[in-house]
């Protein structure tokens, strides 16, 4: 009969088997855990990739939407700016030297001259800003009338003594100027017998507007009203035609006085010495009818305008810098202390308004 094994020996034999089973169990759990983690990682990785893709897609969509809306908004703002800028014939004040730097770049002799002229206005004349005026063949008239209204200047003395609305008929019936029927309203040509009615409406508008502006004491209110008036092209052109007619009336009055050997201002004698303006008719046909259409005011016309409105028109002619003609006044000799308006020009063709 075989002898029974002792318990210690049995335990020694059992221990390796238990250790092997434990290792198998640990390996099994490790494998399961690894597979679970791998599966979870793949699922998580896919979810993250999907989320990132969705986020990138969303961001790209919003970026395209932002660019689209920005483009549309930019176009809309540009449209509004062009529309209102086009309607505003006298723009807001801008810094004088900034305007000069923008307009006169480069190192050409003329550009250097213009920069020096603008610096002269800024430092010596104390002109800090400029108002740009629409470039057309009415800009001299526009520049002068804007300042008359914005400053609230009173009527000329001779206008207070006469009803200027009746001046068209007065020229026809009292002085026999039937040639006035050939008067042209800027781009419009011959208008025939209807010219008197149109001129009367223009002069009535000028009288009403001038009366209203001269009666306003508040500077800011006059400025706001000027912005409204000088954005209405139809009303503007009627006012400029009224100014042209008033110039014609003064030339006709001076001519009638000269024929009776009465003293007249020297500027009118100079006007009548020109072959193209030897009398009121030739002045109208050869010069005044073209104003607003194919040309603006010439220098002699500026004299007549200043005399007619009883204002001293001071003009800074920048292209004449460092010469005696850099600063000129129209008329040169005013009969009394007339108010002053100022213009600046780079070429004697187009004018802007300096702001002191």
From TrEMBL:
<keyword id="KW-0963">Cytoplasm</keyword>
<dbReference type="GO" id="GO:0005737">
    <property type="term" value="C:cytoplasm"/>
</dbReference>
<dbReference type="Pfam" id="PF16218">
    <property type="entry name" value="Peptidase_C101"/>
</dbReference>
<protein>
    <submittedName>
        <fullName>Inactive ubiquitin thioesterase OTULINL isoform X1</fullName>
    </submittedName>
</protein>
<feature type="compositionally biased region" description="Basic and acidic residues">
    <location>
        <begin position="7"/>
        <end position="18"/>
    </location>
</feature>
<dbReference type="InterPro" id="IPR023235">
    <property type="entry name" value="FAM105"/>
</dbReference>
<feature type="region of interest" description="Disordered">
    <location>
        <begin position="1"/>
        <end position="24"/>
    </location>
</feature>
<dbReference type="InterPro" id="IPR023236">
    <property type="entry name" value="OTULINL"/>
</dbReference>
<comment type="similarity">
    <text>Belongs to the peptidase C65 family. Otulin subfamily.</text>
</comment>
């Amino acid at each position: 009969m075989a002898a029974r094994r002792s318990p210690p020996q049995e335990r020694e034999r059992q221990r390796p088997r238990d250790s092997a089973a434990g290792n198998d169990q640990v390996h099994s759990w490790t494998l399961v855990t690894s597979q679970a983690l791998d599966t979870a990682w793949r699922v998580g990785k896919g979810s993250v990739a999907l989320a990132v893709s969705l986020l990138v897609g969303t961001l790209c969509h919003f970026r395209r939407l932002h660019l689209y809306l920005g483009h549309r908004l930019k176009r809309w703002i540009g449209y509004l700016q062009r529309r209102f800028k086009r309607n505003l014939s006298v723009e807001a004040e801008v810094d004088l030297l900034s305007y000069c730097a923008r307009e006169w770049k480069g190192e050409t002799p003329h550009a250097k001259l213009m920069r020096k002229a603008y610096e002269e206005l800024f430092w010596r004349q104390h002109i800090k800003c400029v108002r740009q005026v629409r470039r057309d063949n009415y800009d001299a008239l526009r520049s002068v009338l804007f300042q008359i209204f914005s400053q609230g200047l009173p009527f000329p003395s001779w206008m207070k003594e006469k009803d200027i609305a009746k001046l068209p008929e007065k020229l026809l019936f009292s002085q026999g100027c039937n040639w006035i029927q050939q008067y042209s309203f800027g781009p419009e040509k011959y208008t025939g017998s209807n010219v008197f009615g149109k001129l009367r409406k223009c002069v009535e508008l000028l009288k009403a507007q001038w009366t209203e502006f001269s009666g306003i004491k508040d500077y800011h209110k006059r400025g706001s009203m000027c912005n409204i008036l000088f954005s209405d092209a139809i009303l503007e052109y009627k006012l400029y035609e009224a100014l042209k007619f008033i110039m014609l009336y003064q030339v006709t009055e001076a001519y009638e006085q000269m024929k009776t050997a009465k003293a007249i201002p020297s500027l009118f004698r100079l006007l009548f010495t020109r072959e193209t303006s030897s009398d009121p008719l030739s002045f109208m046909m050869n010069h005044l009818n073209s104003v607003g259409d194919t040309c603006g005011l010439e220098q002699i016309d500026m004299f007549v305008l200043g005399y007619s409105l009883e204002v001293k028109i001071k003009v800074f002619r920048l292209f004449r810098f460092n010469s005696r003609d850099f600063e000129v006044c129209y008329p040169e000799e005013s009969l009394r202390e007339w108010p002053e308006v100022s213009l600046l020009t780079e070429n004697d063709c187009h004018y802007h308004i300096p702001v002191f």
